[in-house]
UniProtKB/TrEMBL annotation:
The modification N6-(pyridoxal phosphate)lysine is found at K191. It is an enzyme of class 2 (transferase). Its EC number is 2.6.1.90. Belongs to the DegT/DnrJ/EryC1 family. It comes from Clostridium liquoris. Coiled coil: none annotated. One of its GO terms (biological process) is polysaccharide biosynthetic process. The active site is at K191 (proton acceptor). This is dTDP-3-amino-3,6-dideoxy-alpha-D-galactopyranose transaminase.
Length: 373
């Protein structure tokens, strides 16, 4: 059996006519940047997330760079973040000369260990950049408390966190990306809300920050050809917005299905002594964008699964403090032992709404077979 890590083909076949209608409509309306569908998607995401403003941009990476620029994560200012993440969460700080200051992660959630943040705050610190990874949010109560006490901006990298909820089981929950000063989503194809190409969004509850984001995405022009800032050309593509609007109709179902699949995995894998399953900490509602294991003999298991037709992924094989591009920051091996160890043990299994129980059965059987050998 072949089980791909991710495929858009099944979704496409299920929703083919809806996608085609949506795309035809964009074409019929004629060429337009930031067209009607972009505005409709922004409104739809505002409603879904509870953010006062959602502003479509070209990618999650651009969303991070623009937000970092606006919040002043630049020119030697320090921003506290985690080294266990995708490059873009840190390169957005470094891009304009800001200084990423890393702290280690929590060994169970893989998110920033908030108990280690305060000791790294200096006169030069301007912000905290938490990343809500894989299935759960970083401890936003702690982060907002430190931010308030030390007058820092918070930029939430919610690229992977569409639909995650803090205090998610109560009435007064807040969604990922809407608690800090600014947040960002990525619509990269594999993400929980993914397009068929690149896309991203900035969220904020501040009218002023929203206005700046809108100006920055069109070259810094408040009025056409009048530039108040040196901005970007970073618009969400109208065609992608049209596709994403179709997917928004099914987003709650897709999130529920991811939860069901995660339970299939938990059920079948719970008795294997060589692996650890994800643990969700704090009062929050997870969304299973990624289903990870921590496992013994990770590389051998990974090879075995691949040899049996199963797609896997390693998020992330190397922490950012050890990457060549950040060597100038002066970190060395051993600085963040939990992040470093996690990179050696973590393995992501296939999870997407259209995967079948039979396929999950097969993946779990192969994992069991591997450890029986
Ligand atoms: C995917 C991702 C990004 C970047 O998003 P793109 O849309 O691919 O640019 C940033 N941060 C994290 C944690 C991500 O997973």
């Amino acid at each position: 059996m072949e089980v791909s890590f991710y495929t858009s083909k099944r979704e496409y076949l299920e929703k083919k006519s809806e996608f085609q209608q949506a795309i035809d409509k964009v074409l019929e309306n004629g060429i337009q940047t930031l067209g009607k569908e972009v505005k409709d998607l922004e409104m739809s995401v505002e409603e879904f997330s509870g953010a006062k403003h959602a502003i479509g941009v070209a990618s999650g990476t651009d969303a991070l760079v623009i937000a970092s620029d606006i919040l002043g994560f630049k020119n030697g200012k320090e921003v506290i973040t985690s080294p266990f993440t995708f490059l873009a969460s840190t390169s957005c700080i470094a891009k304009h000369g800001g200084k990423p200051v890393f702290v280690d992660i929590d060994e169970e959630t893989f998110n920033i260990d908030t108990t280690k943040i305060e000791e790294r705050i200096t006169k030069n610190t301007v912000g905290i950049l938490p990343i809500h990874l894989f299935c759960q949010m970083a401890n936003m109560d702690d982060i907002m408390k430190y931010a308030k006490e030390h007058n820092l901006y918070v930029l939430e990298d919610a690229a992977e966190a569409f639909g995650m909820k803090w205090k998610g089981n109560g009435e007064s929950y807040r969604t990922a990306g809407t608690i800090g000063d600014m947040g960002i989503y990525s619509f990269f194809p594999t993400k929980t809300l993914g397009g068929y190409g690149d896309g991203g969004m900035v969220t904020t509850n501040s009218d002023e920050l929203a206005e700046l984001t809108k100006i920055f995405r069109v070259h810094g022009a408040k009025e056409k050809y009048h530039y108040d800032y040196i901005g970007y050309n970073s618009r969400l593509d109208t065609m992608q917005a049209a596709i994403l609007l179709v997917k928004m109709k099914y987003i709650n179902k897709a999130i529920e299905k991811r939860e069901t699949i995660s339970n299939w995995y938990r059920d079948r894998l719970k008795d294997i002594e060589y692996i650890k399953l994800p643990k969700v900490k704090g009062d929050q509602k997870p969304v299973y964008y990624v289903f990870n294991l921590l496992c013994e003999k990770r590389d051998e298991l990974n090879k075995y699964l691949k040899g049996n037709g199963i797609g896997t992924n390693i998020y992330y094989p190397m922490p950012l403090h050890l990457q060549k591009c950040f060597s100038y920051l002066g970190y060395k091996e051993g600085d963040f032992p939990i992040a470093e160890r996690t990179c050696k043990e973590i393995l992501a299994l296939p999870i997407y709404p259209e995967i079948t129980e039979e396929e999950v059965d097969y993946v779990c059987k192969k994992i069991k077979d591997f450890y029986k050998k």
